Automatic annotation (TrEMBL), chain A:
Domain of life of the organism encoding this protein: Bacteria
Any GO MF annotation of the entry: maltose binding
One BP term from GO: maltose transport
Keyword Transport: yes
Name under which the protein is recorded: ABC transporter substrate-binding protein
Species for this entry: Tissierella pigra
Gene3D superfamilies cross-referenced by the UniProt entry: Periplasmic binding protein-like II
UniProtKB/TrEMBL annotation, chain B:
InterPro entries on file: MetI-like (IPR000515), MetI-like_sf (IPR035906)
Localisation: Cell membrane
Claim: Phosphoprotein is one of the keywords in the record: no
Name of the protein: Carbohydrate ABC transporter permease
Keywords for the protein's UniProt record, in alphabetical order: Cell membrane, Membrane, Transmembrane, Transmembrane helix, Transport
Membrane topology: Multi-pass membrane protein
SUPFAM superfamilies for the chain: MetI-like
Residue span(s) of domain ABC transmembrane type-1: 69-258
Organism this protein belongs to: Tissierella pigra
GO cellular component: plasma membrane
Membrane spanning residue stretches: 9-29, 73-92, 104-125, 137-154, 179-201, 239-258
Family recorded in the similarity comment: Belongs to the binding-protein-dependent transport system permease family.
GO biological process, alphabetically ordered: transmembrane transport
Length: 454, 273
């Protein structure tokens, strides 16, 4: 009996010990002391020239043709900079890349640079692991001129700035747009909607229940399943926002959010809109002629074109506006970790800068379907000709000045997921909007706090 | 007459069962030959309007399959061999050898099964990086060379072998080691084969661990090639299925060869494969 009790006790202790195990604290590393080459480290702590062979490890999530384009750019960079070797390492899709980065951070094994969303980068910045790029940007020899800086759409640069420091440079960008079936619009004699009212009315006119079973065979609009992740544009257009980046306050239970949710829920309850559901992606029913419009990213154009049935003619437009005309842009940036040596960090900066020169960002845009990160990219003759041959790809270039990128709070995604769970209850008529928003506010705040503890 | 009816009924049920199992495979092959715009079409189409063999070409070109194949084989064979050896030795020790604290150690080992694998990923990654094993075969193989689950399973099987055999062997002057390899292991063959099958399948299909501990294409395994066909906006199901067919083929061959043992393993050891 005693033996059994002892075993049980030990098992309990062991399990609690294992579960409660705290992972390694993350320690920022200053590798400046590692410099052993003759190059002088300037006062601002950066190198400006690489004389010894240096390897830059770049973790990314670009697969298929995207990876091919990135590899071509890396090869071009290495031809121009024979001392720098860019080691591109594909780490799976975004989720897998971010999980691996987290593990690497805890093991002090971070790569030199990575492709990353800003809402993920916030955590690394808070832990002091990311290199401030300002000294590089402002440096006469390796930096960017005022004209060059002005050539970046402000929303893309701002997405990499925390407390006045540039921690990331824009990489692959896209915009949330409204895709529509051109022929359905023509047939119904309606214009592409520019306001919520027009949008609702277009959806009503284009929804069709051909077999009269009460379930539309063609829906007016299809939204993504995780509508809450990218709900920001509707909240902004209603005069609100999702959360405050400085104070971490959520704005889920506000009249503006309620107005936006009422609009979206109204569309869904009147069966002129739905979420993707079994179709998984919002563009699938549109590609197959089972929907007249869908909301999706401009970077999905290549996938959409491949999946579209013959005879279905699609185009895209900015999202219809309401009180404001704000447009959501998203996409990743590239950031450099300060755990690297000064040579590696300089190499990584030079490659980040190289990726966003007008020629290279235009090349990447042309090959991948993402948007170029520079205004002047559209003057590059090859890209210009490409846009003329595929005008749908120019849609995302029109709204830079009214564009914004999502909030970057640590745990912001977790809070939005909670909002999504509550919205699903609203769409399923299991909860009223005020009740759901109140619960989303409370639960979301807890989720945000929880995430910040990690 | 009654017998014929009974047989017909049994075969009918078996046919329905077989179809149930086969349909996903047939669907996988059918999808792998479809053009992109027919993959998700509603109502679903079983037979593609035209056969796109190019999907296989695209799949093969998306990743260095030769290297991935070689790595998968090295890792699967080593992990399986490693696990079986440690399992046999440990199961024998826990079932036959009397030593102080045996049951306590075993209980503690069993308790570790309560810790979910996900929780251990980061600590294990930290340990391996401190050992300098990241991006090497060592990281892919060594952490998987022992399994408490297998030890538990085999220990129970070993315990069902009568003590008389052990005692008789001992009287005849047989060492523990000889007894284990010449008597216990042959008697536990069905259970061991089942463990081998489970390990080969799980190791061959393992995705997350190889992703975490490898960086270069030279060290990656086959399942990692599949993630190249999915991005945030969709999955190229046709190409993904083509790649999956290529990857799953060795497992099917392995299963076909060992089919007899699997059936006897299931019936004799009472273990579901």
């Amino acid at each position: 009996m005693n033996k059994q009790l002892l075993s049980l006790f030990l098992v309990l202790i062991l399990s609690l010990g294992l579960v409660g195990c705290k992972s390694n604290p993350v320690t920022p590393v200053d590798n400046n002391e590692k410099v052993d080459n003759a190059e002088e480290v300037k006062e601002d702590g950066i190198l400006t020239e690489i004389t010894n062979p240096t390897e830059v490890v770049f973790w990314h999530a670009m697969s298929g043709s995207n990876e091919e384009a990135l590899t071509n750019l890396a090869n071009k960079f290495m031809d121009e900079n024979p001392n720098i070797k860019i080691n591109l390492q594909f780490q799976g899709n975004y989720r897998e890349l971010f999980e691996k980065l987290m593990a690497a951070a805890k093991a002090n094994q971070l790569p030199t640079m990575t492709q990353i969303y800003s809402n993920r980068l916030s955590w690394y910045i808070e832990k002091g692991l990311v290199e401030n790029l300002n000294p590089y940007m402002e440096n006469e020899k390796v930096g960017l001129s005022k004209e060059e800086l002005a050539d970046y759409p402000a929303l893309f640069l701002d997405d990499g700035i925390w407390n006045g420091n540039q921690y990331a440079m824009p990489f692959n960008k896209s915009q949330m747009v409204l895709y529509y079936n051109v022929d359905m619009f023509k047939e119904a004699g309606i214009e592409v909607p520019k306001t919520w009212e027009e949008w609702k009315s277009a959806a009503e006119k284009l929804t069709k229940d051909t077999d009269g079973d009460g379930e539309p065979d063609v829906y007016g609009i299809v939204f993504a399943n995780n509508i809450s992740t990218d709900i920001a544009p509707w909240l902004k257009q209603a005069g609100g926002m999702t959360m405050n980046e400085d104070t971490n306050e959520l704005y889920f239970d506000t009249p503006e959010t309620a107005e936006a949710i009422e609009f979206l829920n109204g569309l869904i309850q009147s069966k002129v809109a739905r979420t993707a559901g079994e179709d998984k992606y919002a563009n699938v029913p549109l590609s197959q002629g089972r929907a007249a419009m869908c909301v999706a990213s401009t970077s999905a154009i290549s996938t959409i074109e491949k999946d579209t049935l013959e005879g279905v003619n699609l185009f895209a437009a900015p999202l219809p506006g309401h009180k404001t005309n704000d447009q959501l842009y998203y996409g990743t940036n590239v950031a450099v970790y300060n755990t690297a040596t000064p040579e590696e960090k300089l190499g990584a900066w030079l490659f980040s800068k190289f990726l966003s020169t007008p020629e290279n960002t235009a090349y990447l845009a042309q090959e991948t379907g993402y948007l170029p990160a520079r205004y002047s990219a559209r003057e590059i003759p090859e890209y210009k000709a490409y846009l003329e041959s595929a005008p749908i790809k120019a849609v995302g270039l029109e709204s830079f000045d009214i564009g914004f990128q999502g909030t970057r709070n640590i745990g912001g995604i977790n809070a939005l997921d909670v909002l999504g769970e509550e919205l699903d209850l609203v769409f399923a008529k299991e909860k009223s909007i005020p009740e759901a928003l109140k619960d989303a506010q409370e639960r979301g705040t807890r989720a945000l706090e929880e995430a910040r503890k990690n | 007459m009654k017998r014929t009816l009974q047989k017909t009924l049994i075969y009918m049920i078996l046919t329905v069962g077989a179809l149930f199992i086969l349909i996903p495979f047939i669907w996988m092959i059918s999808t792998s030959l479809k053009p992109s715009n027919e993959v998700l079409i509603m109502p679903p189409k079983f037979i593609p309007s035209k056969l796109i063999w190019e999907n296989y070409k695209i799949a093969l070109e998306a990743a260095p399959f030769n290297t991935y194949f070689k790595n998968s084989i090295i890792v699967t064979v080593s992990v399986t061999a490693g696990e079986i050896i440690t399992t046999i030795l440990a199961a024998f020790a826990f079932s036959r050898i009397n030593f102080k604290g045996r049951d306590l150690i075993f209980t503690i080992l069993i308790a570790t099964m309560m810790v979910p694998g996900e929780v251990l990923t980061i600590p294990n990654f930290v340990t391996l990086s401190k050992l300098g094993w990241i991006d090497s075969y060592k990281a892919l193989i060594i952490p998987w060379c022992a399994s408490i689950y297998s030890i538990y399973l085999l220990k129970q099987h070993f315990m069902s072998i009568p003590d008389e055999l052990y005692n008789a062997a001992k009287i005849d002057g047989c060492s523990d080691f000889k007894f284990l390899w010449t008597i216990m292991v042959p008697l536990a063959k069905p259970a061991i084969v089942t463990l081998i099958i489970l390990k080969v399948i799980s190791s061959w299909n393992s995705f997350f661990w190889p992703l975490i501990v490898t960086n270069s294409k030279e060290m990656r395994t086959l399942p990692l090639a599949l993630s190249a066909f999915t991005d945030e906006f969709g999955t190229e199901y046709n190409v993904l299925m083509a790649a999956t067919n290529i990857i799953v083929l060795p497992v099917i061959i392995f299963y076909t060869i060992l089919q007899k043992h699997i059936i006897s393993g299931v019936s004799k050891a009472g273990i579901k494969g």
